[in-house]
Amino acid sequence: MSSLRIESAVLLSKLTSFELGGAAEHFARIDDDAMLLEALRWASARKLPVTVLGAGSNVVVSDRGVAGIVLQLTTRGVTFQAQSADIVHVRACAGEAWDALVEACVARDLAGLECLSGIPGSVGATPIQNVGAYGQEVADSIASVEVLERSTLQRHTLSPAQCGFSYRGSAFKQQPERYIVLAVSFALRAHGAPTLRYAELSQALARQTQTQTQTQTPNLLQVRASVLALRRAKSMVIDPSDENRRSAGSFFTNPVVSAARAQEVIQLAVQQQLVARAEDVPRYPQPDGSVKLAAGWLIERAGIQKGLRHGHFGVSSRHALALVHHGGGKSAELLTLARMVARRVREVFGVDLAVEPVFLGFDVDPMSEPAADGT
Q1: Which residue out of 25, 141, 146, 168 is catalytically annotated?
Q2: What distance in Å separates the CA atoms of residue 141 and residue 125, rounded to the nearest whole number?
Q3: 284 DSSP β-pair partners
Q4: Has 185 been annotated as catalytic?
Q5: What is the pLDDT of residues 145-178, one digit of tens each?
């Protein structure tokens, strides 16, 4: 029997890692599917918009709050089922904590998620963003995603192809009003080797093992520990004592541009003596011929340094991609800083930065430059 409880005027700043934003007009925590259906029917009867919130680690909430009802998914449940001698399917409900799931999988020697250790948030958010780090993306391991279609209230199980995964994107992100993610199933490799595609991670692991008499392939536990150490050094794990703790992690995604555009960026960097050699510009060729550039590198070379302060906000002292809230600020002030950073990169390199967090409660694109009259 559902025990849905709907509250009013709930401050969302208390539920987000940025600690910013106004109140939800109405709010409910959703512990099971029956409660979700009841909440959606309640909102439909009143013609109210519905916003789904996970753990609040990748969102920016408007200062005026969010109209309608905000539903925070807190559903729990994880199952492990062997599909063969080599593959185990791990199904987790949307409200499960992401890093706790990764830790549980690594402890069972299941490979496929180890490089995604330390990422804050909930399981249900990971396919929406196609979360990725250190050479892995969740799309690499997702077997299926269980969703509720909002218009029909029907449940569906979608294949990876139906999810439309892309770099830090998916069909869910492109059509946020269509589905609510209920659970995600991952196909993980039993006793599989860790993913070691990312140079920084490989180098960190090599430093750890250089005193050993024999070269050994790192195990999943070692990879997880190294990823957590790397993320902690960049203030990319939740730590109440960290001055950079109020953030959404990386605020911008790495831009993917054409090979020709990447070459122009490289030439600009050399001409402006931002690098000594063209080879010093970090870039990552993609299978389709495009090139991924390093947003953090672009930001710093455009003159935005780590530790920059701008009112109540600033750039993380440890990672140029993270914008941080130092307390007492408003979302509007954060967006002023974000637009300034993006504008500077555009002026220097001619590259547009895309934001990674989801914006809630905004009527227009919050990254668009305000008109001269302030509208």
Answers
A1: 168
A2: 15
A3: 292
A4: no
A5: 999 999 999 999 999 999 999 999 999 999 999 9
Q: What are phi and psi of 257, to 5 degrees?
A: -125, 170
**DSSP readout, 163-200?**
HT-BTTB-HHHH-TTTEEEEEEEEEEEETPPPP---HH
User: Is the CB of residue 243 less than 8 Å from the CB of residue 279?
Assistant: no
Is 168 annotated as catalytic? yes
* Residue labelled with tokens 């196909």: 187
Selection from 245, 251, 223 nearest residue 353 by Cα? 251
**57 assigned to active site:** no
Find the catalytic residue in 62, 122, 250, 331.
Answer: 250
In 10 A of CB 205, how many CB atoms? Answer: 20
Whether the predicted pLDDT of 213 surpasses 50:
no
- Residue 184 pairs in a beta bridge with 92, 145
Separation between Cα atoms, residue 207 and residue 200, nearest integer Å: 11
What pLDDT does 318 receive? 96
DSSP labels for 66-104? EEEEEEEE----EEEEESSSSEEEEEEETTSBHHHHHHH
Residue 50's pLDDT band (boundaries 50, 70, 90)?
very high
Q: Which run of H or of E encompasses 337? A: helix 331-349
